[in-house]
Amino acid sequence: MSFYPSYLLCLCLGVLCVVFVSFWNAQWRGGFAWDGTGKQFNWHPVFMVTGLVVLYGNAAVLYRVPLTWGQNKTPWKLVHAGTLLLALILSVLGLCAVFDFHNAQNTPNVYSLHSWIGICTVALFTSQWVVGFAAFLLPWSPVELRKLIKPTHVWMGAIILVLSIISCISGINEKLFFSLKGNVNGTQPYAKLPSEALFANSLGVLIVVFGLVVLYILSNQGWQRPEPNHDGEGYRPLQHEES
Ligand code: HEM
After folding, report:
1. Is the pTM of this model over 0.85?
2. How far is the CA of 236 from the centre of ligand 1 (A)?
3. In terms of residue numbers, what domain contains 104?
């Protein structure tokens, strides 16, 4: 199968995830503000899905785009690191939104399973970015170190995406249980599957499918960027290359 249909699917699913998470919060959760109310919380899912899933996933598959193969790798490394930095900034803003909201409402912090997995995901992502920057972008980092780190960097990259998706699914589920309580706040209960629940469940499915497409692209050996073999034996896959 050729690369581009999968890549197009990845791009379309990414856009749909951002549209769905924004529409859910605008349509059913009262929209957005930065004032310590539920409207501030609403930035949390939007920033987390956009940063840690959509931007992250697209940055992960960047080197697989054949259009980039014949070119110098350094600018693409900068695009990869820059997109991931933007993803990291959005995730930190997403965390600020929810911590600030909890503090304003006197709600305890980091008590749920969702928050534990979420915190670990962002911590792993931050360390992955710092180590990746130091090892692959700083010109004085030794080639041997790059060779050593690369397989772990690739493996950790996929693991962080999986953890982000688990965080999003558990977060969506938790939010629906908190919000759709039937008679208590004038909404229909989650178990009756009101339109909001149907929509947010579909967002969860979209996020999972997006993640599977990214992992499929990453796992396809034939779509790895060919790198010059310095022994003069032609090309060998990215994973065995030094940077
Ligand atoms: C990668 C994605 C995500 C990460 C890393 C993440 C992380 C976190 C963290 C660390 C907290 C705890 C904040 C505190 O204790 O003050 C939290 C809270 C929360 N998040 Fe997320 N989140 C993510 C996505 C989502 C999504 C998509 C939703 C859907 C609405 C969501 C819903 C919630 C809810 C309802 C809370 C408040 C209750 C609680 O602390 O568990 N999260 N999130």
Report:
1. yes
2. 41
3. 3-240
DSSP string across 156-179:
HHHHHHHHHHHHHHHHHHHHHHHH
Of 86, 29, 15, nearest to 56 by C-alpha is 86
For the chain, the domain total comes to 1
Q: pLDDT tens for the chain, 243 residues: list them.
A: 689 999 999 999 999 999 999 999 999 999 999 999 999 999 999 999 999 999 999 999 999 999 888 888 899 999 999 999 999 999 999 999 999 999 999 999 999 999 999 999 999 999 999 999 999 999 999 999 999 999 999 999 999 999 999 999 999 999 999 999 876 667 899 999 999 999 999 999 999 999 999 999 999 999 998 876 544 333 344 443 444
Q: Whose CA is nearest to atom 42 of ligand 1?
A: 171
For ligand 1, say whether the CB of 100 is within 6 Å of any of its atoms. no
Give 207 Cα–ligand 1 centroid separation in angstroms.
15
Whether the Cβ atoms of residue 125 and residue 159 lie closer than 8 Å to each other: no
CATH value at residue 94: 1.20.120.1770
